[in-house]
Amino acid sequence: MNILLTSVGRRCYLVEYFKDALGGNGRVVCVNSDPLTSGMAAADTQYTVPRVDSEDYIPCLLEICKKEEIRLMLSLFDIDLPVLAKHRGQFESLGVAVAVSDPWVVETANDKWLTYGLLLEHGLGTPMTCLGIEAAWQALRNGELVFPLIVKPRWGMGSIGIHVAEDPAELEFFYQYTRKNIIRSYLNILASNDIDNAIIIQQMVEGQEYGVDVLNDFSGNFLASVVKRKLAMRSGETDIAITENNDEVRKIAESIGSILRHRGNLDIDVMVEATTQIPYVIEFNVRFGGGYPFSHLAGVNFPSVLLRLANRLIIRKESLEYKVGVCGLKALSPRCI
Amino acid sequence: MNILLTSVGRRCYLVEYFKDALGGNGRVVCVNSDPLTSGMAAADTQYTVPRVDSEDYIPCLLEICKKEEIRLMLSLFDIDLPVLAKHRGQFESLGVAVAVSDPWVVETANDKWLTYGLLLEHGLGTPMTCLGIEAAWQALRNGELVFPLIVKPRWGMGSIGIHVAEDPAELEFFYQYTRKNIIRSYLNILASNDIDNAIIIQQMVEGQEYGVDVLNDFSGNFLASVVKRKLAMRSGETDIAITENNDEVRKIAESIGSILRHRGNLDIDVMVEATTQIPYVIEFNVRFGGGYPFSHLAGVNFPSVLLRLANRLIIRKESLEYKVGVCGLKALSPRCI
């Protein structure tokens, strides 16, 4: 059987994991709007496709699914997920198992304000968050927020930075700066309608960060989770991490999975505050994240599980279990393309 | 013979290149103050050493050179270079060939204000640069500078960002912000004496960026150069590049090498302005940079050349020649440590 990875980007290791899971019985097909990425280079077959916001995007993917006899499809990019979630039925009609969650799940994960609401509603620890600058000034006056604060776009936008504001002048500046960059980058998508509600200001929590992967089957039933302590970050992505047995963090992550009933992998960031040891959920994404390799290195094999689910085969228990204390890093490996 | 790479950081590919060059006839020994890096993991032998600003640093390296019978040493980190340059003689007394340039060369490369002066003095194109904010305001009034401008620390500081200022408010903010971060990061090294001269403001040049490697022998004589067109950057490091035959850029790079008479590799960034096609030298570093793998993939083998120079062997011509049009990228390769 053949597999389609959309918006593959730089995730060449996931391409390799899926190739290994196939064991020669099928190909990994990758698509991306930019052909020059390591993920595209690692694919068995690759197609340069229109951007996810193009009208031609879904018709193009449907054609590829037919032509390449795709039986499992997943995406590696937040902006791609709502588009695929909306059209999931069309792919399923072609016999493709789609590891993309329901539209409300994707929307909640992509919208950090909705994420905050969902976490509050379910009594899960999360940093105090304000929508827009006026709410933040009010919360600062009330003492609900204290500096340092995080200023970030409400919707996932890879190219726009997250800033730490340490005083009112930095808050005002980074708010306006983020606003300008959002308008510039995504003018045609969302900014024109609701730019004043496009930035969130969040209490910064300092401590030990964890990443958790929670795997569900295609009906949203829990299969496995892996907890990793992050040891080094680089450009917002986990660079070094070690697997851990941390019941408190694991339970929080699994409860988010049981609320969302997502399909496939869920990637969750939890910050355990340095002095109080209270865990705060920072955000989550309903896809394979940059931290999955550390789970894989510790023994789970989620690509293989998804493949067997799509084929209605029994899941091997060892694909769901991980060793504690496995430390991994991402090496840079230069190659020709 | 054994080789010592200091401040190896994440440059695991260079460790591999040196291992290949040794072909089993010796070991690559790596040292770093942080043991958890991919470079350290790739070494044959690794030592966690004091930070480069510690009094114990040089004695510790000398001990390692003796114990491990090191015959060639080089560093991969700007902050490390002046320390090694100052003590080069002590290593040479032990019979170690040191691919570290003279102190004035290292100082000029590390200090972007001195870099600017050297380029001006030799009539090489470089963006108009001001030291400190008052000079920048003056140059803006005169029309010598126009927005957008680059605000960056004068001395190489990996953790402190480079910012683009598009108007006076952004210039004022990023100047103060960079100042604050320099004071915080390097208080004990330089900021207390000369913080008002620790930031440069440079005309931003938009266009096509090139990276050039220029290899000299241990007497500062030219051996080879490789020109690469940068196709993608990530966190300030070249991620995708293609080798090119560009005489204009090559000549500029080689003339810098002939001025500096550096030892080993010189890594140069040149921006060719989009409309005028004028090349501007942005900065240079007298060490292997993040762009070297693209030269290596195209056929040169500078690690092998350095090894043979240290052994007083004849240099193979093919180690100095590259193929044009070779496109490379850095894949992320997860592994256990």
TrEMBL record, chains A, B:
Residues 116-311 form the ATP-grasp domain. Transmembrane segments: none annotated. GO terms for molecular function: ATP binding; D-alanine-D-alanine ligase activity; metal ion binding. Keywords: ATP-binding, Nucleotide-binding. It holds the Pfam family ATP-grasp_3. It comes from the Bacteria. This is Carbamoyl-phosphate synthase large subunit. It comes from Franzmannia pantelleriensis. The lineage of its organism: Bacteria, Pseudomonadati, Pseudomonadota, Gammaproteobacteria, Oceanospirillales.
